[in-house]
Amino acid sequence: MKNIVLQSGNREFLMSFAKRALIASAIFFASACIVIASGPTGFPNCSIDDNGPYCPGAGNVSKCTYCCWNTGCSDADAQACASCCVHGC
Amino acid sequence: MRPIILWCCAGLLGAAAGLNYARLNHAGSDELAGQAHSIGFASASDFSTVARMMDGGKIRILRATDLAVLQKYADAPGHTADFVAAALSNIADETAAERVVPLAASLRKRSPGCLIIANLPNDWRKQGCAKAADQLVKLISSPQ
Q1: Burial of A61 (0-12, 13-18, 19+ CB in 10 A)
Q2: B50 in contact with A at a CB cutoff of 8 Å?
Q3: Which end of chain B is more exposed for a tag (fewer CB within 10 A), N or C?
Q4: Segment holding B22, helix H or strand E
Q5: Do A69 and B82 touch (CB under 8 A)?
Q6: Is the CB of residue B123 less than 8 Å from the CB of residue B136?
Q7: Mutation test of the interface with chain A: which of B115, B120, B122, choosing the one with the most A Cβ atoms within 10 A?
Q8: pTM, two decimal places
Q9: Is the Cβ–Cβ distance between B135 and B102 less than 8 Å?
Q10: pLDDT digits (tens, 9 = 90+) for B5-55
Q11: How many Cβ atoms are within 10 Å of B34's Cβ, its own excluded?
Q12: Of residues B54, B115, B123, nearest to A61 (C-beta)
């Protein structure tokens, strides 16, 4: 088996690249957390995440409607949410 | 000897991939059945029929099998009614819409708070089913 030895220039380049990637991913996750933590906008009485993959605006009517009825909404909010899935908000 | 070993390995890999696929497929159908029951559908196939009608865009030909599934849920409670109403709102053919007027009226009477059903006449008018929309409005407003 051959040993692969990184030259010091390559190693520095890789380290700086890894650091930048780490910082970029930390910023990405932090912003994602802020968006999720900012919570639902249209349906205050339930835990619908407007940014969820199947919630209003995502375009998949059946999954969106399923989401509306399975996130602890009151009946009225679930009805309003389901209507959003079909007609837009 | 070597080709035999290679064929054996390929066979084993193929079998493993097949088993994995079957396992994943089974998990998916279990999930669908769970969703169907939580919404109030009797079976996963009923739910997938209604979901297909909801997601598939404008419906110009209403198949008898699809209509039968929808009619099964004419007296469905609010959460199931939303799904059926969303499927009905995609109908864009006058004849098909006229066939489901009684079903839509029944849903409306059973779930008066359902906004999708309330908006159904407008949806149908926009999609060229004005006669069916008028029939529905008349049926809803007539006293029982």
Answers
A1: buried
A2: yes
A3: C
A4: helix B2-39
A5: yes
A6: no
A7: B115
A8: 0.66
A9: no
A10: 778 777 777 777 666 665 555 555 677 788 888 888 999 999 999 999 998
A11: 11
A12: B54
